[in-house]
Every structure is written in C-alpha cells, then in structure tokens.
TrEMBL record:
Annotated ranges, domain Contractile injection system tube protein N-terminal: 28-174
Pfam families to which the protein is assigned, alphabetical: CIS_tube
Top-rank lineage group of the source organism: Bacteria
Protein name per the record: Contractile injection system tube protein N-terminal domain-containing protein
Length: 218
C-alpha cells in the first residue's frame, strides 16, 4: 500500500489570466506551495469617513477596498531529485517560475515595441497598455479580479551557475470591484459573485444573543 485512498486532495492557490472581452483563459499559474498566511485588509469607503458631516455618517460610498498579501516559497529541491525529468530546472533553477510571476507586473516586450513605434510615427495620443484580467483563486469561495500592487523576490540559495534554486516571493493584490470595472465587465460580474458568496456565508453564522453581551436589550 502506497498511501491512504481517502486522503484529501490539497488544492493550490494561484492566479488565472483571462481575456476580459472573450473570457478566454490565457494562462493558469499555480503556487508551488500554499503560503501559511494570507493577510487581508478592507478599507471602508464612506460610513463616517467624512468628519463632521452628519448626513454621511451612516452611508457607504461603495464596496470596501480589499487587499491581499501573501508570501510564497519556490524551491527546486523536489525537481532536482529527478534531473532527467526536469531539465529546465537543472539548467535554469527556479527562474522560469519567478519570471512567470514577474510577467504579471510588466507589459510585454512587443507592447513596448509597438508603443515606441507609435511614438516614433507621431501618434498624438497613445492609450496605456492593457494587461489581461488577473483572477486570484484561493479555493472555490474566493475567485476575485485583482491588480498586483507590489511584488518582491528574495533569492535564498543558488546552484553552481548562480541560478536561484530557493526563493521567497511576496505579492500584494488589490481587489478590483464594480467601482473599478463596472457591472458589465467580466471582472465586475466576478466581483459581484464574490461579494454575494460572502453574504451567503455570513447568513450561515450563528446569531448572537443579548445575554452573551451581558445586557437585557437595547
């Protein structure tokens, strides 16, 4: 017997890149190891944010601005145990995995060349370069459109050719909501599904009682 047949399958977190117009999946990036910690921050829009304005004290201006922060480990050790099956890792270390993540924060070289060509031709107005829609996937209950706000890599070990073989990657995301994308955008509809799923989960939480607060009522 090689293992337990009833062992649960461990899901991986990751990022899915899609074409916002067609919804076509462009790339799926899964984390090698799930981070042990995921930090989330929600910044409220409105709801008392305007000091001294009584008419705004109980109003929301829109969805809370939500951010995620995670640190993921990338390690070539498992692949280097079987070098014949992982020639790319032997030749490049973990640079391909890191480069895929770095591509999320850079325009492509072709986009830059096209932009330069337009500039050289005298185009008066050049629209900003558009990135694919990135979805942060953390289980079926968290599929959210995001923009990467910060990215850092700490390379911790190297092979004899100075290819990194161990690294820690820190990634910050900002959730894109309907204020950013609109309701008709693919990302806007995914955000609404994410928000509605939160509401369904909140409805399952057990309601409290005045007695647990030490009061008889309000």
């Amino acid at each position: 017997m090689t293992g337990y047949s009833n062992s649960p399958k461990i899901l991986k977190g990751g990022i899915v890149l899609i074409d916002a117009e067609s919804g076509r999946v462009l790339r799926i990036i899964s984390l090698q190891y799930n981070p042990e910690k995921l930090t989330r921050t929600l910044q409220v829009q409105g709801a008392g944010g305007e000091g001294g304005n009584r008419s705004e004290a109980m109003r929301f201006k829109g969805p809370a601005v939500e951010t995620f922060k995670l640190e993921a480990d990338i390690d070539a050790a498992d692949q280097l145990e079987f070098p014949d099956q992982h020639r790319s890792v032997v030749e490049n270390g973990i640079q391909p995995q890191v480069s895929v993540l770095e591509s999320l924060v850079n325009p492509t070289s072709s986009q830059l060349l096209d932009r330069n060509a337009m500039s050289q031709s005298g185009t008066l107005e050049i629209a900003p370069m558009e990135a694919p829609l990135a979805l942060f996937v953390w289980g079926k209950n968290r599929i959210v459109p995001v923009r990467i706000t910060d990215f850092s890599v700490t390379e911790e070990a190297f092979d004899p050719s100075l290819n990194p073989i161990v690294a820690k990657v820190s990634i910050g995301f900002r959730v894109l909501n309907v204020d950013d994308l609109g309701f008709s955008h693919k990302g806007g509809s995914l955000f609404m599904s994410y928000l509605q799923n939160k509401e369904r989960l909140a409805a399952k939480a057990q309601a409290g009682a005045f007695s647990t607060l030490g009061i008889g009522g309000i």
